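User: I'm putting together a teaching handout on how sequence relates to shape, and I'd like one worked example. Could you take Glyoxalase family protein from Leptolyngbya boryana NIES-2135, show the sequence you're using, and then write out its predicted structure as tokens right after it?

Assistant: Happy to. First the sequence, then the structure tokens directly below it.
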Amino acid sequence: MNFYRIEHINKVCQNLEATLQFYQTLFPDWFIRAQEQSNDMSWLHFGNQQFYLSLYERPNASQASPLHTGNIDHIGFVIADGKKMTALLEANGIEYMLEDSPETKYRIYVKDPDSTWLELVEYKESYALR
């Protein structure tokens, strides 16, 4: 097998600090793995030992990365407890939507400060691929 896991998602931010604060609220156990700032851009890796979000901001939009070709439709995260997550979102004034699905207990959709949709999923114990 030549595939181990998804390591990271690289995401363009309009305001790196606001985006970091949002993800720190959702995932308080994650940490900054690496970061750097220069005149051209600021970036950081925020996650855990297995996965991270690579967040970056370029102050001059004309200097966009040649790798950036468009928007991400959504990013999916498996979470441990949907009820706790909705309570956390409500306590922090973060709007969200719920959708039903046969394999999930909770399917929560929320937008980050850059308008990227996140899908936060708690699977049912009976779902084999959880």
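A couple of points you could highlight for students: The chain has a mean pLDDT of 88. The longest strand covers residues 104-111.
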